[in-house]
């Protein structure tokens, strides 16, 4: 109908295009950052460079349109047993060391449509000098888990099909899935939608079961550990936050009000780091008062035990009528990690044998619009 508002989901080709543009910037930013991840480099400097790469990429697109765009997940670089959300302040930063197991994640949004990406690697690992042992095992386990999940994310499959497969894969690699890690459906300005996939179900942690459907978008997050899979809070300063939209409060400090105004302008709905602000004094004062009155959600730095290792992969997935599209790819060089462990479960092997669509979904042929439902279902199975 004339004047009717267009759909805000991925059934709208314009929305799909925004996801793809955001995904391209996320991928390019991560690839540029990985080239800088050398032994001796400051983690703080790497995090700020990652965010800078995002901002530079965004500045080159939609230049003539009044459209919101920005960081959706600030660059975080978490080493060895640290699980995530490590974006340290300059005076509290450490450096990367040779043979550290490093996890890098970041996210971009265009008009509130979010594309996130994350990878794991070992500093100095190459196909010529591959890593072996637990580091190789846990990275291969995480990669195998996300590759399996991507092939299971098809209409009609249950979210718990992924959780069940994760458990089998982790066991085969002598690892555990991490408790408390969720993958969420994402929508415009919403990074943690109600539909979710749990990495590991335990007696007090579970999600509602449902089947995947056409026209859904997800940030798929897989985290595997050589430890027990029970993350603990650390002494590292929390620097990553998100605005709680349902909470308002008249802040007392002028510095806090100034800081909150900047957050509302630059990060009204999605995540940010203290490193994204030039005035660090105002930022620290503002965060303290905002947290006191529940204006922000905090994302603390969690970790496994000191000698354990954690690997993670994160991608953005669009379930379209024409197939499942991996908008942000899995960045991994398997030849740099040599493991003697293999998948033994026959169902998982069968799933991994299915080809995975990793690029844009093919455009529809207008002449074939009148396909029968049976034919459409057949097409989905073959994609």
UniProtKB/TrEMBL annotation:
Region (Disordered): 353-383
Ranges of Basic residues composition bias in the record: 364-374
Domain Peptidase M24: 18-187
A Pfam family reported for this protein in Swiss-Prot or TrEMBL: Peptidase_M24
Xref: InterPro entries: Creatinase/aminopeptidase-like, PA2G4/ARX1, Pept_M24, WH-like_DNA-bd_sf, WH_DNA-bd_sf
Source species, domain of life: Eukaryota
Family: Belongs to the peptidase M24 family.
Protein name: Peptidase M24 domain-containing protein
Naturally occurring in which organism (per UniProt): Stentor coeruleus
